[in-house]
Write the structure tokens for this entry.
Amino acid sequence: MTKAIVILAFSLLVLDQASAQQLSGYVSDAQSGERLAGAGIYSLSDHSGTGSNAYGYYNLKLKNSGQLIVVSMLGYKPDTLHLKNSRDTILNLKLFAKSSNLAEVTISSNSAGNTDVSRINKATLTSAEIKALPRFAGEVDVVKALQLLPGVRAGKEGSSDFQVRGGGPDQNLILLDGVQVYNSAHSLGLFSVFNADAIKNVELSKGGFPSRYGGRLSSVLDIKLKDGNSDHFRYDMSVGLISSKLMLEGPLKNKNTTFMIGARRTYLDIIGALAQTSAEEKTNYNFYDLNAKITHRFSEKDRLYFSIYSGKDALSERYESNINKEEKDNHFLNWGNITSALRYNHLFNKSLFGNLTLTYTDYSFKFINDYKSPDTRSSYKLSYLSKIGDGGLKMDFDYMPSNNHFIRFGANMTRHDFRPNVTSVKNIENNQGLTDTTYNNNNIKAVGYFLYAEDEIKLNDRLQMNAGLHFSGFNVQQKNYLSLQPRLSLNWMLTNTDALRASYAQMSQYIHLLSTTGSGSPADIWVPSTKKTAPQSSWQSTIGFAKTLKAGRYELNLDGFYKQMNHMIEYSQGASFLNDDPESGLIDESSSGWENNISTGKGTAYGAEFLFRKKEGKTSGWLGYTLCWSNRDFKGINNNKVYPYTYDSRHNLTFVVNHNLSKGIRLSGTWIFNSGLPVTIPLSQYKYYGESGTLSSIEHVNVRNNYRMRSYNRLDLGISFIKKKKMGERSWNISVYNAYNRKNPYFIQIGQSSSGGKASLHQYSLLPILPSFSYSYSFR
Amino acid sequence: MKVRIPLFLVLAITLNACETVTEIELPVEKPQLVVNSIFNADSILTVNVTKTQSIAKNDLEFENIENAAIELYKNKVSIGQLIYAGNGNYVSQGKLPNEPYAEYSLKVKAAGFETAEANDILPQKPVLGTSGARLDSEKGNKFQPVYNISVQLIDNAETNFYELTVFDRTSNRLLFIDFKNNLNAFERAVSSGSTVYFFDDRTLNGKSINLDFDIYFDNNDGKPHDIVFKLSNISKGYFDYQYSVLRQFNSDPILNNEHFAVANNIKNGLGIFALYNASTINWQLE
């Protein structure tokens, strides 16, 4: 495989020798030095242009000397250059943000408008856009911002997982600086693990996936971390209701090396400890995350990046008897991710840009129950572990042979190490008879790999295409799964502002998430495809229309989609990783292995999305609407009939507004409406025919998701006060979550009516109106 | 030792902090016909017909269907109508013979409902070999004796499902059984201190094994009790029904993945139509 890539790269190098005069270099932010992806470099003389790649590199082929070049990027002041000579030129370009006010929203990191082929099925948010939104408990949240985009919806109330176009939460590939993140939430989903201060930009692909991505059926969330300010040191600190954050970035030694380090920690445990000093039972919870990145420039052609993320949640409940200190019953729950990437950038020649990346990711979920009773001379220790570790190597190349072709190709190999549900028990009863047993302590090792090639082609002035192939494989338990996935996106410019577009993509997914709650809990376990469990696969096609208005300040998108998903898995009816089995409890259930507790099936999702977005100005924001049907068809569930997916929500409407009231005051508001989600509720009961004449009743729940909960709607408001200070800039943010205190459904159960007599449905609502504040200071 | 589930704690912490409860009136679902019949060979077939009721109703007064017409078929040939015997029960006009592999079917017609249908095949009688009951003086006492029981089961090559009970005919109650074999058995607590065991023959197919278990019974009068060991060969439909009933009664819809639906073999209705064939052994124990 490596040999083939070298040969291909070599032939491309040879091909490049014959090219015309070239203008190449990097585009970066004039203030921070951050490289800018997606900036447009356009020759007014040749009527031809190109864009900068993910690392800010561009290469523009020019026909004539005496060129007038325009460099542009939304949110930045365009720059015009006059190029006189006729030789190949290296030119590093710096763009100035339209406003120097740090707090002002400079929308979108990508100059390519929504009518460009590279923008089909994509949504982009910058750190500034995310920070401008109202906050939840004082926290800026990347995923909650994404949930406001059409085609994306949240899981349950307050959760930081998301579903895209009727897919499951496990079908989203979440990449942090190119490394997969398995669990993207803290606090059982209330907060995402991504620290907005450390983020450069966020891009979500919902369909028509470029060939460079694979491994998930429904979306790719690509989060890029900041490289670190190469111009000056900068410190940001923020104090919120539940956590504080600190971020440092700046150059080191001759500005060839930059660093960025961001950390966040909650203080719920400290508050908790103060409140529980004398209690026998003490509950503590905290989470932290840390992002760090260091970048070193060896030369204009060579760059090395090292980034690391570490995040952990820790929950404990300790019981210690006041009478006998020896008596204890402690529960510990820990989960977290570690990811890291070591990336080497090399510019082979003006047309060929390469990346070699080593990746590592680790996710673990651990539960310990430690019980000791001196009275009964017994002790019991149960530990449960679910863990996944990946180590990978990938090579990616960007080849720009002409202004009409942008070719990407590469390869990836990842070694997975799964330990899905290891349970061990040590039990001593009455000071004798030690039981020490470990169940399911078997690693499943697997190797996943893929090759890809894609070309973004300008066929003529009107027609653009991204065509590619993604070939992937997964080797597990002596079984080798292979998949060849064609990808195609077409963009036909009807006028300079209107475009028709269509896409088709096939995807394969070799790992699955088994969820107990269906709402992104850390106890959900990642399991691989095995000999017995086939990989998931899907195809999705989309068709749409895009329009830009008022020189790109407004965007209008209308897209229709249809997605078919196969070989999906979920726990069989009533099964769970922690099922309290009626016979013997947790242990017997887990020892039987997850493969014996699953059902397989298929799903379909189809619908339409609408987005009208104002991207710049004093007032910005968007109106989004999604119409979606999402159904599942699983063997052994719902009498083998099709049923609506747990997150099947027909209408989803979002309205987002940011308004700069003055230079120092910014208002923001979001309103969201989702049709009610389906749930399974036993609406009737029938007679149980007991063995010895005992009469009981059976709940009639043979129809899955037979009842729709009430619709969900919520208004969030925020106001930020920003002031320039001697040392930098300070800002106060006051936010109100669920401003009109809507009692949104979280779950529904049958319960006794408060008036007595008949039972009724009880709707539980989780989050009422929640005001919060945060204070941040940015030193420069 | 009961394992406490930490996720519950987390949910409880979160929910207790913020939860509010709103009552919503239950929607009304169209009633369905419920047909229940568990039939032992060599006896009169009884079919109980009721209808579903709203989950909102707290009492277990299920409405009997008294005007149903039930036709019974054997190997797809009608063998007559069942007679209404009160309380929603319909009975056959005589005992049905013990003919293993005979297929029995029901068609239940009642005004306002679709015709419900069900069928099942009568399994073979289990073959029992030697057996013995021995008083365990270490475990029991005079008023609550414990007996170690051993019964040889000769399983045939077919796939079989079994139900095991021990009945104290003297005190008219099922006894508590402490099963010793590792047969992937599951147990249903019928009432306080009484159990029924179900197992399949995955681990013993075609073999002969000794079923070993202890039984406990109250013997306050000191007189011999008439104890009946009963092993029934049951159909897969009945085995699945019992397992799913057990799972539903014990599952938590929040913690578990969805509510557990009970297996149903009644077409256009709900309930169970199951045939079984039992072998028994009697002991006089005191």
Notes: Chain A touches chain B through 81 residues (CB under 8 Å). The helical segments of chain A are 2-16, 127-132, 142-146, 268-275, 586-591. Chain A has a mean pLDDT of 84. The longest strand of chain A covers residues 378-402.
